Amino acid sequence: MDRIVIGIAGGTASGKTTVAQKLFDAFGSDAVMLSHDYYYKPHDELTFEQRSKLNYDHPDSLDTALLIEHVRRLKDGNAIMHPTYDFAEYRRNSEWQRTQSARIIIVEGILIYTDATLCKLCDIKLFVDADADVRFIRRLSRDVNERGRSMQSVIDQYLGTVKPMHEQFVEPSKAKADLIIPQGGHNEIAISMIIDGIRKRLAATAE
Q: What is the domain partition of the chain in residue ranges?
């Protein structure tokens, strides 16, 4: 069985997860989804305060080699056990999650196109684009309401690492995308066209 790996990249709070979820929902049991966020490196040797000050927007903050191994295993039809992450505590959970393979493997994250091997594994590369001010407001709301962060800590992190790392790594990776989606998950026309294209590709590989 041929399997299709779909990469979905974009800046923080650009709407990547919304786009990924809509693709996942469209294909049901034929799809699985992995987030690069699951693969933040564990720092159990550090205190909470020390962990909170790390740069989580640099490629080195993630165990991308493990994600690559897992994508390859899924593409070969094998199940995986992947890590999970606690954003409130800035640490990897002790519980790992089992994920079965499927015909469509969705991989999303801000930095997935910065690694040449992972980028090459993606058969379809999407980049979700959104205005920087909109992304910051969304991130502020999300991190305060869902991840237990203070407003000042979100602002400090955004100015200290998120914005400069976006400019250094994320924005340049847009050039590697096959398709750029403006307005993220709100772009129903683009998402509908992508779903139709994937369905045609699945039908072609089934013949």
A: 4-181
Side chain identity at residue 132, one-letter code: A
| Cα distances (angstroms) measured from residue 10 to each of 30, 130, 191 | 24, 8, 15
Q: Which CATH class is domain 4-181?
A: alpha beta
pTM of the model: 0.91
3-state SS of 43-112 is CCCCCHHHHHCCCCCCHHHECHHHHHHHHHHHHCCCCEEECCEECCCCEECCCCEEECCCCEEEEECCCH
**Contact yes or no for 185/18 (Cβ under 8 A):** yes
Q: What are the average pLDDT values for consecutive 10-residue runs of the chain, which has 207 residues?
A: 92 92 94 97 93 94 98 97 94 96 97 97 95 90 89 92 94 96 88 94 79
